[in-house]
Amino acid sequence: MTPSGLKIAELPADAVEVGRITDAWGIKGWFKVLPYSASPEALFSSKSWYLLPAEQGAKTFSGTHQLLISEAKVHSDTVVASASAVDDRDAAEALRGARIFISRASFPAVATDEYYWVDLIGLDVINREGVTLGQVRELLSTGPQTVLVLAFQQDGKLLERLIPFVAAYVDDVDLAGRRIWVDWQPDY
Fold it and tell me: Which of 9, 45, 51, 92 fits a 20 to 30 Å CA distance from 34?
């Protein structure tokens, strides 16, 4: 089943899930988006979104579809978007729950010493003594700072270690080498 006006597409190899469509907004086909980031610049910078059906609940379509975005903007406390292929409220409601993916190549460039969280996941974290402390499983925003959540094994058990992602503890991030160097000890 294909929503009217959407093109069937292949998900790009570098696709990153950045949000989901929560509901229709207004009567002219606009829809509300729940971004997975506090700074949804990727949603605003890309004019080509890839939609996959909701993982749970009613599914109004199957497969991957490309949606060409006309406009995306912040409105009040939410993100709203429009697409030429979605021209009325019914069409927007048919997208409810759709997961939004964007090609990583479409993300805006970051400044020096800034990183997209998605680029840090999976990197090995090594301290100054050369001890591997684990691999970044996820990042947490605790308000004043971001925290790396590392997964590591000890005595056959999968454990986690938390390290603040701040300059006081992070010496270097080597994206090409897939490593983060830190001033941190295994027993902290």
Answer: 9
3-state secondary structure of 148: strand
The letter for the amino acid at 136 is V
Residues 90 and 124 in one domain: no
44 and 93 together in one domain = yes
Candidates 168, 178, 59; CA nearest to 120 is 178
Long-range Cβ contacts of 140-149 (<8 Å, 24+ apart): 141/38, 146/117, 148/120, 148/180
Instruction: Find where tokens 């056959």 sit.
Output: 156
State the residue for tokens 């069409």: 91
Domain that holds residue 87: 7-106
The answer, as to whether pTM is greater than 0.85, is no
Looking at the 3D structure of the chain, how many domains does it have? 2
Residue 82 lies in a domain: yes
pLDDT digits (tens, 9 = 90+) for 41-81: 889 999 999 999 988 877 788 899 999 999 999 998 889 99
60 C-beta neighbours (distance < 10 Å), count: 16
**Residue (of 71, 76, 78) closest to 29 by Cα position:** 71
Instruction: State the amino acid at position 144 in one-letter form.
Output: P
Q: Of 58, 78, 106, at which residue does a domain stop?
A: 106
